[in-house]
Amino acid sequence: MKAPLRVFLVACPLFLLETGCGIENFAGEARFTDDFHYSYGFKPGGSISVHNQNGSVEIAGWDKDKVEINGTKFASSHEALDRIRIDIDHTGGSIAIRTVVPGDRYFILGAKYVIHVPRQSKLDRIVSSNGSVRVNDIGDDVTLRTSNGSIHIGNVRGRVSAETSNGGIEGQNLDGACKVETSNGSIHLSQLRGTVEATSSNGGITVRLPSGAKADVEAETSNGAVTSDFAELTQHSSEKNRLHGEIGGGGPPLRLTTSNASIHIERE
């Protein structure tokens, strides 16, 4: 006699997406999510800061006199999601955005941001503990930090300072002094107009310069090679892992350093 077939029904919670809440499967974990949106009038010339816990931050400049903040909170439980706060301190000349999470590290939780700001805004300090940072079309200084994630910077007309512990850095069309550093990742820079200092502990560095570029170059790696498309630099180098010299008769300093990878100075 055959054993009776038993069917077990498991009740699953249902969340309505139109309310801004839902469930997202991320890295094998079921994550509860909740979207948020804020908008503030904001004149060009002000400063923006973001302090995020676990999640990406994307900022782009636009031709509007307002700051628009869109994002998604995420957590591994509905309880943890409800305890995440987005704190925003808005004054006439600055906006400070902060993700506040519960102290219980048992939960997987955080937030990701997509922010639009007036082009002539200073990105005073954009920080994420674990997540990528992307910035485009900013006409003032930017300071970017993340612990574990990549950094992408494009079309910035001001000083750039960018640092990550574990991730690559890419920068393009940077019109100002540029200082970038990563502990474990590669660095790629192009269309540069200003002083450049790039440092990686365990990653290659590639810098692309136009044919008419002018620079004072110092490039060195402990374990790797330094190569250049500019013949005037190779004439000053006697060691494959070190290269000093001038491009186009000299110009802004170009300092490139890595420990365990190669450095390439390429012609665009």
The topology string of helices and strands comes to EEEEEHEEEEEEEEEEEEEEEHEEE
Instruction: Say how many strands there are.
Output: 23
For the biggest sheet, the summary is: 12 strands, mixed
Shape: flat
Runs in which pLDDT lies below 50 for 5 or more consecutive residues are 1-21, 24-28
Cα-based radius of gyration, to the nearest Å: 23 Å
How many angstroms separate the termini?
A: 79 Å
Topology record:
Layout: E1 21-26, E2 29-41, E3 47-52, E4 57-62, E5 66-75, H1 78-83, E6 85-90, E7 94-100, E8 109-118, E9 122-128, E10 133-138, E11 142-148, E12 151-156, E13 160-166, E14 169-174, E15 178-184, E16 187-192, E17 196-200, E18 205-209, E19 215-221, E20 226-228, H2 231-234, E21 242-247, E22 253-258, E23 263-267
Parallel strand pairs: 3-7, 3-9, 4-8, 4-10, 9-11, 10-12, 11-13, 12-14, 13-15, 14-16, 15-17, 16-18, 17-22, 18-23, 19-22, 20-23
Antiparallel strand pairs: 1-2, 2-5, 5-8, 6-7, 19-21
Verbal overview:
The protein folds into two domains: 23-119, no CATH class; 150-268, no CATH class. The protein has a twelve-stranded mixed sheet with strand order 1-2-5-8-4-10-12-14-16-18-23-20. With 268 residues, the protein is mainly beta. Helix content is 4%, strand content 57%. The chain is flat, with a radius of gyration of 23 Å.
Short characterization:
The protein contains two helices and 23 strands. The chain is mainly beta and 268 residues long. It has two domains: 23-119, no CATH class; 150-268, no CATH class.
